[in-house]
């Protein structure tokens, strides 16, 4: 995810300059869950291609595409990695990824991946509006937002890169919150007319989301037969 921000035309908000939010493909497989990008390290990416004028095979609403190709893993047998991160600002956030892969000599992969994230956000905002009519009206507000959630993803899947022209795979993913997720906003608002207070109030809103497991299955096939390209992906 951090590597993508350094690509040409890539904006800080994840859009391509003048071409909106891109569709992302990894090894010809469409990324349907943005968290999938967090499961790859930058040194696993062999190449990145930005398409700002995508063809009709991407659909009418697609304004830009990023195609990533990963480094082909060598050898066979068991491999794995663990990545952990701690982020500190006014609040803290932590996450950890664990990946295990077993590869056969024919290029077939069996893999499992786990991702746990404990995320906290703190933000403040102010808004000041003055309207000049026959009277001077002022609207002033300030608020503080605090949110926190812990979440996990667990993958179990199979991929087979048969050769340079054919690959197939299926992945099962489970995700859920660990405990309740909370989002709380607290703020004050004031309205004055010609410097005199007309209205004021204090508001608190809190959203609590209880855990509920989500199951996802993705299957794909990408191949080339003669001059025909075949691309199938379903969730």
Write a short abstract of this structure:
With 235 residues, this protein is mainly beta. The chain contains no helices and 13 strands. The protein has strands at 23-26, 29-30, 45-51, 65-70, 77-88, 92-103, 108-132, 136-163, 166-177, 181-193, 196-209, 214-225, 228-234.
Give an overview in words.
The chain has 235 residues and is mainly β. Helix content is 0%, strand content 66%. It is built from no helices and 13 strands. The chain has strands spanning 23-26, 29-30, 45-51, 65-70, 77-88, 92-103, 108-132, 136-163, 166-177, 181-193, 196-209, 214-225, 228-234. The strands form two sheets. Strands 5, 6, 7, 8, 9, 10, 11, 12 and 13 form a nine-stranded antiparallel β-sheet that branches. Strands 2-1-4-3 form a four-stranded mixed β-sheet, with no helix packed on it.
